Amino acid sequence: MDLGEIDLDHTLSCGQAFRWRKQEGLWKGIVAGDEVVLRKTGDEVDVQTSLSDRAVRQYFRCDDDTEAIFADIRKDRYVARLLRQYHGLRLLRQDPWECSASYILATYANVPRIIQMVEKVCRAFGTKLSEGTYAFPTPDQILKKRDRAGTCGLGYRCDRFVEFARSVHEGEVDFGSLKRASYLDCIRELVRFDGIGNKVADCVAIFSLDHLEAFPIDVRIGRVLEQRYGVQGSYRKVGAWAREHFGCYAGYAQEFIYYDQDARNRTVNKRR
DNA sequence: AACCAGGTCTCGA
DNA sequence: TCGAGACCTGGT
Predict the structure, then answer these.
(1) Which of A7, A22, A166, A239, by CA, is between 20 and 30 Å from A36?
(2) Strand C and A155 CB separated by under 7 Å
(3) CA nearest A8: which of A97, A92, A80, A76?
(4) Nucleotide B6 C1' to residue A41 CA (A)
(5) Confidence (pTM)
(6) How confident is the model at residue A272 (pLDDT cuts 50, 70, 90)?
C-alpha cells in the first residue's frame, strides 16, 4: 500500500501512540480493534490487516498534504533541521476514545510505564484478538469489570480512568462535534473532565480530533521553547505563542521537537 | 537508592 | 488567571 512518504520507525516510536511494537523488523500494532502488521518494501508499505485500505490510510493521515504542511511550519533553522533529520515522521489519526483514555493514564509517567499501563488495561478489559494480543477496551467493557481497574497499576489515575469511561459510555462526550468545533471550543470541552488538563486536551485534539494547531507542552517542549526561543510563562500564553509562530499546523512542529528531545535522551542514556 | 516522569488538582493571591 | 505543592508508581 502507498502510504506516502513515511518513516515507520520515526512515526511509530515517537510516543504519540502506545500500542506499536517492533518485532524482527516488523511493526505490529492494534488499530480500531484489529491487528496490523507493517513491513517496509521499498517506497511502499506491506500492510497485513483485516482493516479496509481506507481505514488504514485514514489512520496514517494520508489525506494530509504533508509537503504543504512541512513548508508551512518551516519557520526557522531549527525546525528546518528537524524536518530534514526526521524525514518521514508523520502524525497519526487515532481513535478519540482510545487516545483520550490513554493520555489520561499518561500524566506524570514515563513512556515505558504508560505503555505498561495501557497494556495492562487491554489485558484486563479488552477483547482477545490472538494469543497475548488484546484490543483497547470499550467504555462498556471497562464498566462491566470496573473492580479490575485496581490491578492495572494506574495509581491515582485509576478513578479518573474509570470515571471517564463512564462519561463516554453515558454519552457525555461527543467526539464528532469536538472534531467539528473550533480548536479553542474543543479544548474548553475536554478540560472539563477529571484528569484532562491543558496538555492532555492538546494531545487528544491533535492526535485524534484533527486540530493540528494544538501544541502540547510538556516539560521538555517547555524547556526548548524557553532555551531556543526565549519564551516562557503560563501554558495558555506559551501555547498561543507557538500557534502564532508555527502557524495552523503547529502540532506537527511540536511532534518533531518532541521526537528530537526524545532522541537526545536516548543517546545520552546509551553513553552511560 | 534516589530521581523523575508526554500533568492535574486544589488552594490561595 | 496564575503559581506553588502534593501526588501513585515503576523505570532507569
Answers:
(1) A166
(2) yes
(3) A92
(4) 31
(5) 0.97
(6) very low
Q: What is the DSSP letter of A150?
A: G
Helices (DSSP H) in chain A: which residue ranges? 8-13, 53-59, 66-73, 77-85, 96-105, 111-125, 139-144, 157-169, 175-180, 183-190, 198-208, 219-229, 235-246, 250-271
Q: What is the pLDDT of residue A42?
A: 86
The set of residues with CB closer than 7 Å to nucleic strand B is A 14-16, 106-111, 113-114, 191, 193-201, 203, 216, 218-221, 254-255, 258
Q: What confidence tens digit (pLDDT) does each residue in A231-268 have?
A: 999 999 999 999 999 999 999 999 999 999 988 877 76
Dihedral (CA of A207, A267, A9, A69) sign = positive
Distance measured from the CA of protein residue A109 to the C1' of nucleotide B1, in angstroms: 19
- Are A242 and A215 within 8 A, CB to CB? yes
Please state the φ and ψ torsions of residue A207, each to the nearest 5 degrees: -85, -15
Residue A231, phi then psi, degrees to nearest 5: -105, 130
